[in-house]
Amino acid sequence: MSSTLLSAQLAGAQACLDYVSSANVDGLRDLFAPNFTHELFPSTTAGSQTKRSKDDFLGSVQYFWANVLERLKFLSPFDIVQAPDVVVLHVKADGMTKWGKPYTNEYMMTFRFEGGKIISIREFVDSLFSADLMASVPAPAPAQ
């Protein structure tokens, strides 16, 4: 596999993180293949399900920005592993929730590529942080 293709795939994985960090759903839509899928692990993590479609994943990004995140930035990866059509990143996020709780989740993400597009992401999160985050979500205000 050429180093040019490997570089393009690494750039695609980084662009995905950048687009999630800036709530750029249109940018994500362009990066993803039509048959894109997303899986969240471990399976005990709140919100995990078997596989999300492209539209489901984009909807979850929009929901998270509308209801949870005030700001988000993925820090430089701790580790990058590449193989033909696969990029694996170990990254940490630095952000803030809308209710003032620091957002510092840690991730292992496996990006799979086909034809220059991301066809899947398998996302492993810090399950303890994720459970604590979900427990801290403020209750909705009562209807008036």
UniProtKB/TrEMBL annotation:
Pfam families: SnoaL_2. SUPFAM superfamilies: NTF2-like. InterPro entries: NTF2-like_dom_sf (IPR032710), SnoaL-like (IPR037401). It comes from the Eukaryota. Residues 15-120 form the SnoaL-like domain. This is SnoaL-like domain-containing protein.
